[in-house]
User: Fold this.
Amino acid sequence: MKIARLFMLVGFVIVLYAGAQVFAQKEDTPVMRGKKLFANYCASCHGADGKGNGPVAPSLKKPLPDLTKIQKGGKFPTDEVRKKVSGDVLSPVHGKKDMPVWGMIFSQTDITNLVKYLESIQRPYDPQPAM
Assistant:
């Protein structure tokens, strides 16, 4: 009887572990990693929802764009967004390529994940893009 309980316990632990691994894999997608980076590094200015309403936004000289509306012609401008995030395109707020605000922190994978996250939060196409 004790052996049967032990096998049941081991089986239960294995099922719990396997379930946790499946859940972790679903949560560890490029979009989810990008969302975490956005929350940690971008949301203070851009807002948790990406609409430019973060707690720091009122202290900035220019209003921030709504990052949920950056698609152009119904398509997400992946390369343009990547260049802005990485500093390849000069952005007065983010800084130059040699020293963007997060340049020393973001890897190329981080930038890819951030771009994928931004693409995932796009609202239906609006002919008036924010960027």
About this structure: Residues 9-13 have pLDDT under 50 and may be disordered. DSSP finds four helices and no strands in the chain. The CA atoms of residues 78 and 97 lie 18 Å apart. The longest helix spans residues 2-27.
